[in-house]
Amino acid sequence: MISLGIPDDEFIRGKVPMTKQEIRILTIVKAGIGPDSVVCDVGAGTGSISIEAARQAENGMVYAIERKPEGIELIKKNAEKFGVKNIRIIEAYAPDGMEELPELDVAIIGGSGSNLPVILDTIHQKLVPGGKIVINCITVQTIAQCLEYMRNREDYRYEAIQVQVNQLEQVGAYDMAKANNPIYIVTCVKEGK
Amino acid sequence: MISLGIPDDEFIRGKVPMTKQEIRILTIVKAGIGPDSVVCDVGAGTGSISIEAARQAENGMVYAIERKPEGIELIKKNAEKFGVKNIRIIEAYAPDGMEELPELDVAIIGGSGSNLPVILDTIHQKLVPGGKIVINCITVQTIAQCLEYMRNREDYRYEAIQVQVNQLEQVGAYDMAKANNPIYIVTCVKEGK
Amino acid sequence: MISLGIPDDEFIRGKVPMTKQEIRILTIVKAGIGPDSVVCDVGAGTGSISIEAARQAENGMVYAIERKPEGIELIKKNAEKFGVKNIRIIEAYAPDGMEELPELDVAIIGGSGSNLPVILDTIHQKLVPGGKIVINCITVQTIAQCLEYMRNREDYRYEAIQVQVNQLEQVGAYDMAKANNPIYIVTCVKEGK
Amino acid sequence: MISLGIPDDEFIRGKVPMTKQEIRILTIVKAGIGPDSVVCDVGAGTGSISIEAARQAENGMVYAIERKPEGIELIKKNAEKFGVKNIRIIEAYAPDGMEELPELDVAIIGGSGSNLPVILDTIHQKLVPGGKIVINCITVQTIAQCLEYMRNREDYRYEAIQVQVNQLEQVGAYDMAKANNPIYIVTCVKEGK
Known about the structure:
Four copies of one chain form a homotetramer. Chain A is built from five helices and eight strands; from the N terminus they run αβαβαββαβαβββ. By secondary structure, chain A is α/β, with parallel strands linked by helices. The first copy, chain A, has a single domain, classed as 3-Layer(aba) Sandwich (Rossmann fold), CATH 3.40.50. Chain A is globular.
């Protein structure tokens, strides 16, 4: 069953920025999460990605890494709301806290602060051959850094897209386009499988 | 398991235009197809949507309606390539051929020629309460017609987005944005459940 | 001299929505305003388009039609701020107030309420052969109505684009994409010259 | 008079890629070219930017730098077609050939190969206080390099946008969106005036 595609307004979010539904869907599908996948979600924010991932990896586990206490609270509340039990929350500023992770099938990076390369190095140590990393980037510097990293590795292939979604808002007799910010999604596959 | 997200180049397609992977993913997820769903794919083209739908509806059935013989051949070949058995192909120019459809959980409209309102009327007759219709529109006239239709019905709610995806093409040391055409995706829910 | 391209933040605007600089530039250039042009700006809002138009039509005249008193005040203040004298303000809900217009070289429609077809009929009566109409549309219904109107007229050619601009906002060490709403720009030329 | 906004199909172009009309308009306007401006167009390609610039700088001069013989021929042909006399063509791979440039009011960079920083250094030597540099970037690496350069200079302010234009193509009774590739436009102002 596609348990994927929870609407944005069903998540408890406070004022923490949240990945929009369409980006969440594309991120989860491109990550290729299976029922037994072990997943790490770096910069988990409200936990919206972690929860969607955990519902796909029903027999697996999702490790949600988030540094802000406000985020940690939201992840807990959302996990409870959606009845998701296979999430472990790690309160840390990645790559801190990542040494304790087990072998990973999938890593998703929604927020990396300024530590993207070292986070990617750490994930690489944990990632199984054939494993996937999906990175969401909202700044020019992050997408550039991400591409530079992947271009310098012989053992990864990547695909990158930029996605822009406009919502049609129903205003009286009209449907008016309201823009969401564009986002880059980079999907990387570790070779060897 | 997410069997969703087949890459574009894995489909056999000839010169028939094909919905791009990201749009396919969003369409299938927004349609909320479950393992037992009965789905109709109007204007099936190469069958890429039908095949993704059939893999989700593993115990259900997908009815692919397509008028062009070239499309029919591609749907057959792709179904065979991906080992999908729960697709029935109807060679007709919708709404022709739709009277024989059973009760539907989901209808996806990728191509409607100029018959969108009558196709929607026909789907409405077949669609269960709570069922979903997802419509992909690439022209201004089609999205306008689709919104007008849904605004005139009390028994449907809809959400509409426009999605634009740019591929980053790897050219030497550079990643260069290559645009795909934007597309509107309208998701309609029939009330009553 | 290009006096075109006033930055958004130089206009006095209150809370009235304002066409963004890039859209203003494209609108004015596509309208082909010359130094002697007589221009009508329908739904003038803050007057940002009227002022840019008036600076191009330095020996011509711009008629700014706006129904809201708040808009009227802003147009006056902005005309004063930029020292533009060749603007006549008409406080009316178009097409009201348009009968008094002289022969027009250019008409720009930024806001049409629900009266687009009758506004276009009225402009047609005033527009010289070879004259141009440029229409900015932010809703699906307006662009559809605009295209339908132009398709039904033998005496106009049109070109239509959708433009989306993302601003890169400087946030610390990062440049983060912030989306503006997309807009359709339709440029119509009256034949006969 | 706005001589700006030459339609794409009026340029002679062969198979050389050409900046699209809307991007050309925004680039020229953001560059703030006046009637006496001295302008340098780096990576002039077909000369479409150079010609629009030269028509604005009617008493000034445009230096078009292009390395490919095919481009040189097109610039000459287009200059002749549009009757533009104030263009000097420099056949060189920038920054080669730039040492002979006079003091510049404006520099436009449409193509920089891999030499962007050194080209910017060279322009900086020639650019008057208050002068502008407008850079069009189609790759992630180029926009990142451009922003990094400008962030490291105290003596420049910059504004950056990403623009995406979709053409509505008239196909029978329909208007179908056809995407152009998105482009970043960075406008930099040298302080001191």
